[in-house]
Amino acid sequence: MLRRVNSSTLLRQQPRSGSLSVQKEQLETHLRKTYSDPNREMPLSEPAGLVWPAAPNEEFNSKPPSLKEINAVLQEVRAKTAPGPNSVPYLLYKRCPNVLKRLHKILRGAWSNLKISEQWMSADGVYIAKEQNSTEINQFRPISLLNVEGKIFFSVMASRLTKYLTENVYINISVQKGGIPGVSACLEHAAMIWEAIQRAKSEKLNLDVIWLDLANAYGSVPLQMIQLALRMYHVPEDIQVMLDDYFSDFRMRFSTNSYTTDWINLEIGIAMGCTISPILFVVVMEVILKAAEDSAGPANLGGGCFMPPLKAFMDDTTIICSKEDETRRMLERLDVLMA
After folding, report:
1. How far is the C-alpha of 306 from the C-alpha of 198, rounded, in Å?
2. Contact status, residue 143 vs residue 123, Cβ threshold 8 Å
3. Could you say which DSSP state residue 199 is in?
4. Contact at 8 Å (CB) between 126 and 143?
5. CA–CA distances in Å: residue 307 to residues 181, 185, 209, 319
């Protein structure tokens, strides 16, 4: 028997338009409520049953960014990408080799001295409509526009962190399909779940499939959870120090058609638009998935075929279980871990 409990909406298939129509005071109140964390200084307890992985076989590359790495970042980004508060575009560094060499020297110095520029911690925020004729706050997705110099710096760090995590098999790509280069991601994630459903139907087997779309997932990640994840996966202390410095003083302001808000400190969550955020979110989700995975056994799809009880594409998490009691335990466990 197939029991479908919930399904997430594929926003990309819907037309999106609109303009945010709220008063400045209302938006600032919303921002303070969303991005403030009264428990920020409280220690975060480690999830029960979490097993830390062994020390890495492949060490993290902690050397300052090379010019080759910076050029690789510039080749990947679009020249017309919107700049941050300083209004300097990627195009300057794409077209001016001498300026790029100067930037390279600055980035190497920042890395060597573990110093993150305050200008890299300030973001101009904009709201992108999630549906047609959007007007209310919950109909928009916040995006942060950061200075490209910092985005280049953290793009190099993100690339190295991704390489380190995948080479040491710290990220289980059979479970987490999002945020990992070279993984077919959304298509493979959907195809595997669809295949599991079809096999269960043909074999006349019980299968519970629950789609979970986490509300405000990026904006709900505590800084302490990022720190725990980095320690758990043996990321070098120098990298932890730089990331802690970066997120500790991160601030944003948002603009609409008629006003710009005051600066708001980001006390919880990671900013959409930040180049290091996707892989950090994947790492945090991996901690949660690992802490929950023992709540249920592999789903039996018949013919000696089994599937892990959890699948994820970034924050879109799918529970796949053969037994209803295991499904309940998994839901309860995830509810506790994500509270």
Report:
1. 13
2. no
3. H
4. yes
5. 23, 17, 12, 10
CB-count exposure of residue 327 (10 Å: 0-12, 13-18, 19+)? buried
- Supply 38's token pair: 């009264």
- Fill in the DSSP letter of residue 258: S
Q: Looking at this protein, which amino acid is placed at residue 130? A: K
Q: Give bridge partners of residue 310 from the DSSP assignment.
A: 319
Task: Give the E-state strand segments of the chain in sequence order.
Answer: 2-4, 122-129, 140-146, 207-213, 251-254, 264-265, 299-302, 305-307, 310-313, 316-321
- Please tell me what DSSP assigns to residue 50: P
C-alpha span between 114 and 43 (Å, rounded) = 24
Nearest to 310 by CA among 302, 294, 203: 294
Q: Which two tokens stand for residue 323?
A: 């037994």
- Among all chains, which residue has been given the structure tokens 């990671």? 270
**What distance in Å separates the CA atoms of residue 332 and residue 320, rounded to the nearest whole number?**
14
* DSSP tag of 119: G
Is 145 in a helix, a strand, or coil?
A: strand
Closest alpha carbon to 266 in 331, 218, 197: 218
This prediction has a pTM of 0.85
pLDDT in tens, 206-242: 999 988 887 777 788 889 999 999 999 999 999 999 9
Read off the tokens for 54. Answer: 């062994």
Residues 6+ apart with CB under 8 A from 198: none
Question: What phi and psi, each to the nearest 5 degrees, are found at residue 252?
Answer: -140, 155
53-57, 65-69, 267-271, 276-280, range with the lowest pLDDT: 267-271
pLDDT at 9 exceeding the cut of 70:
no
Burial of 225 (0-12, 13-18, 19+ CB in 10 A): buried
Residues 296/330, Cβ–Cβ less than 8 Å: yes
Residues 165 and 279: their CA atoms lie apart, in Å, by 10
Alpha carbon distance 219, 217 (integer Å): 5
DSSP assignment letter at 308: -
